[in-house]
Amino acid sequence: MRLLLVEDEINIARPLIRALEAQGHLVQHGPDLTTARALLLESEPDLMLLDVRLPESEDGGFILAREARKAGYSGPILFMTARDALEDRVMGLDEGGDDYVVKPFDLPELLARVRALLRRVHEVRTSVIQRGGLEMDLAKRSVRWQGTLVELSSREYALLERFMMSPSRAYTPNELVDLVWGDEASDAGVVKVYVHHLRSKLAPQVVKTIPGGYRLGLEEV
Questions:
Q1: Taken in order 159, 77, 115, 18, is the CA torsion positive or negative?
Q2: How far apart are CA 216 and CA 169, in angstroms?
Q3: pTM reported for the whole predicted model
Q4: Domain carrying residue 168
Q5: Which end of the chain lies in a sparser environment, N or C, as judged by fewer CB atoms within 10 Å?
């Protein structure tokens, strides 16, 4: 899943990013409100983890949540903050938050809360998507081609998920780099490599090359 972490304290952000990535998530990190706004616009996070006090504002996380909800963001929002007063918790939930964790927090508890929120995302989405001979189970993160289970790396899965979730959309290589790799890759050539992996493991027709980019090459069942 794609997560947006907004946290200005690097000693909190760094281990949290490592832990979330170890669970297979792609994490984008915004250390301030300005960066977070830009990341929210360019990406489509499945969940946001927001600190409240940010360099630009004592209520930066609340402001970002309010703006995101107003713009139509429907994914879960989890606040992480040292502000533990009742009025702050109420404000967080009223601004569109789904959960509220007070710092300092235990990492295992925070990860459990993230899993619980993401389960709701899975429940909202159709769990299994089928296109042609391809079946993707979003809850189990598994893929079958012509009924046979196929093992994909986390990046291969993320790339295929992007195509499966928007089957009629064409992506440029640079768009796919931003959506699947984030800051971890800058060379669009990596997309060509992973498209080759998907075609080799599944079938050549799974990903279609079009002028300027790629799209899913399978029809809905």
A1: positive
A2: 8
A3: 0.58
A4: 132-216
A5: C
